[in-house]
Amino acid sequence: MVTEHAAATRRTSTIIVMALLVVLLALISLGVGPVRMSPLKVLETLFGGGSDVYRVIVQEIRLPRTILAVAIGAILGLSGAALQGLLRNPLASPSLFGAPQAAAFGAVLVIALGLADVRSYALPGAAIVMAFLSVFALLVVAGRNAGLLILILAGLAISSLAGAATALAMNLSSNPFVALEIAFWLLGSLEDRSFRHVMLALPFITIGAIILMSQRNALRALSLGEETAQSLGVHVGSLRLIVILGVAFGVGGAVAVTGTIGFIGLIAPHLMRPLVGYDPARLLVPSALTGAALLLAADIAVRIIPSTSDIKVGVLTSLIGVPFFLYLIMRERRALGGGVG
Amino acid sequence: MRERLSLALIGIVAATSIAAIAPTRAADLPRIASINACTDQLLLALADPDQILGLGPYSRDATRSWSAAAAHRYPRLSGEAEDVLVLKPDVVVAGSFTKRATRELLKEQGQNVVTFDVAHSLDEVKAQIRKMGEVTQHPDRAEVYISRIDTALARTRQFVAKHRYRVLSISRRGWVSGSRSLMSSLLAEIGLTNAAGELGLKFGGFASLEAIVKLQPDFIVISNDSEFAEDEGRAFLLHPALEHFYPLSKRLVVPERLTVCGGPMVADALDRIVSEITRAEHNAGTTTATH
Fold first, then answer.
1. Is residue B110 within 8 angstroms of chain A, CB to CB?
2. Among B44, B108, B197, B210, which is least packed, fewest CB within 10 Å?
3. What is the residue-wise DSSP string for B185-228?
């Protein structure tokens, strides 16, 4: 009883610390930009004071960017934790399974064909459909109790397919700038987004988050094994579909406004596991907070690192994420079956 | 004033065309093919219709070509060497920046290839019009276009001198063109202050949304007033922060087809700047009146 109580306290304090970190990073994010402003001035303009110029810079340029970083980082962390719980596999994450790449293909298709304004709901709509199809296809191909290797291979194949389809969509476009635009898009960026983008992404991210959170007890039951979960009344087949749907809504909505930002969903749950334990249900909220903190930090870093043209935040998350992924593979290589150690 | 000038111009061009079409002369004039969007437009302006054997692949693009409507009467070439060789032109006109391999191939096949640089300034525009006048053997027409540009320039300078506005010309994604661009050259020639210098972007570069908002030029110059954002690059110009300070009434809209190439259309670009400033002033007048 005592240890359980201690674990609960530790989890609560972790959540509080992470929440405070997110708030702190969000404030820093509001203070960082090409136009220098003191922290006091930022706070003043945030609450409607200051000159017109500074108010617009903080409220219309930096605030939507910060809100998107929090929401998108959170949904990526949450999706990663939910997928790792669903597949009972610590290497699961939306980006390894090609979901963001597929979502990007959906959005790119809309851009390349010039079908709709990039600030319309057609973009998240197409992205969500493609994200759903990709994760669904992955699970169909890999089967119910797929091993690590099969999942990763199938994910690689789906990523490549989405990449090729994206390139084809680019070639079919009549917009002469489309190649550059899509190249930038695929790198992932939060730059110069407005409240129109927030309105575009937030509803879907919220729906995705609600769906994933609603399955936390089922995910916990599943961590005891599929048969135990079934004896506890969990319908594993429908759990699978619901989680995919949640991930598709979240990732699709996010990708539609920022392009592909990878590896947040992979890293966030790993950072939290040592602190809150291996229960997938208890991992969801801390992972979401960690995801938000990670993306905020990355998005602050791209604005601080001196460079002639802006660094894309998706590039930075991959630069950090890929070595981390390689480290995970090294740690898990016995499970992969080819280890020497 | 402007209409009368254009009418006079049409008269001159028509008169010379009729003279040129006379059978004794037509045979002597060179027959020309163009494989570049800018040479397309110079050729259409200066040559007789029966001198033009074919135009480049983008000649009919109405957003980028000033003479897209006229281009429909001529064959559209692929821009590659094959269809040019079949036409056996006396002269092939091309851009000096693109299609290097195609140009080399055409030269090897004994074609007379004349290349045109990208025009960076008003002087270069005039030089290119003269050059095409020589290629088409209609130097008289070239001089008519050049004097039309000079008239428009004098008129625009006079108009702008009254106001001394500070403007910033921005393209998609916040691209600000450097001093060696036709747009910057036009702004400088007519006496508008180009705020790009204050951004430290003398040689061109991307300006951040925050920097533009902070800079507060009197007007921004853009190429398109559509509210449709076909991609994120275009959405930059429709960002609420930019629209807050620069609603359509504070945007000078100068279409791409008037500034992307050097040619007779530059006179239209100058006239367009005047009419856009007039519109912006009129809007400012009515908004202050209603306040």
1. no
2. B108
3. HHHHHHT-EEGGGGGT-TT-EEPPHHHHHHH--SEEEES-----
The CB density around residue A341, as the number of other CB atoms within 10 Å, is: 6
- Whether B2-145 and B162-290 share one fold: the answer is yes
Contact status, residue B73 vs residue B53, Cβ threshold 8 Å: no
DSSP state of A180: H
Which tokens hold the place of B12?
Answer: 């001159």
Beta strands (DSSP E) in B117-201 are 166-169, 175-176, 193-194
User: Is a pLDDT exceeding 70 seen at residue A24?
Assistant: yes
Total CB pairs under 8 A between chain A and B: 75
Q: What topology does CATH give the domain A2-33+64-334?
A: ABC transporter involved in vitamin B12 uptake, BtuC (1.10.3470)
**8 A C-beta contact, residue A89 and residue A152:** no
Is the separation of the CB atoms in A310 and B174 below 8 Å? no
- Strand-by-strand arrangement of the B113-116 sheet: B52-54, B32-34, B91-95, B113-116
Domains of chain B, residue spans: 2-145, 162-290
Three-state secondary structure call for residue A189? coil
The per-residue pLDDT for range A149-181, each reduced to its tens digit, is 787 788 889 999 999 999 888 888 777 777 888
pTM of the complete model beyond 0.90: no
Q: Phi and psi for A78 in degrees, rounded to 5? A: -65, -45
Q: How far is B215 from chain A (nearest CA, A)?
A: 9
Considering the segment(s) B162-290 as one domain, its CATH architecture is 3-Layer(aba) Sandwich (3.40)
CA distance B152 to B21: 30
Interface of A with B in 172-231 (CB under 8 A): 175, 177-178, 180-181, 184-185, 192, 194-196
d(CA B128, CA A270): 64
**Contact criterion met (CB below 8 Å) for A81 and A281:** no
- Split at pLDDT 50, 70, 90, the class of A311 is confident
- Measured distance CA(B10)–CA(B230) in Å, rounded: 37
H-run or E-run covering A172: none
User: Residue B55 has what DSSP assignment?
Assistant: B
What's the whole-number mean pLDDT along residues B133-149? Answer: 96
pLDDT digits (tens, 9 = 90+) for B269-286: 999 999 999 999 888 766
B108 inside 8 A of chain A by CB: no
Q: Residue A32's closest chain B neighbor by CA?
A: B210
Class of domain B2-145: alpha beta
